[in-house]
Amino acid sequence: MAVRELRYLGDPVLTTPADPVTHFDHRLQALVDDLMETVLLPGRAGLAAPQIGVGLRVFSYNVGGLQGYVVNPEIVSLSEETQQGPEGCLSVPDLWFPTRRAAEATVKGVDAKNKPISVTGTKELARCLQHETDHLNGMLYLDRLDPDQRKEAMRQARDSQWFWQGDSPAR
Q: What is this structure's pTM?
């Protein structure tokens, strides 16, 4: 197990839909272990595999004392009731914007041994399940903001130290 380095806004892995997991082997277990260890650091609620540079459909969560992961997750239920609140992202550090999400969400997938699992959450866990599933679909929470908020978020991101990747700007 290892705490893995994060990828930041501008890295193409964050906007590319992740591939379904098809091999349930020791490499998948190592990825799950790394996701779990990395999400357990203070201030973290969820972590999708693309955020550590792996384009596979896996995420981990750590919300309100509930910890776990889901392989090949799909959102199967969202409540009609919504919640509006500040949302942030490890791949977009230090930026928080009000984001509307369903108040309750259910995700179904499998574990590392390909056994079915389901996770239902309300409040922050619901937000996390939706946020991490978005990551696996190549979407950031910034994509859910209204145009003016998104423009402001992108301005702030471009002005940050973490925005630049590699030898060229991540634009």
A: 0.93
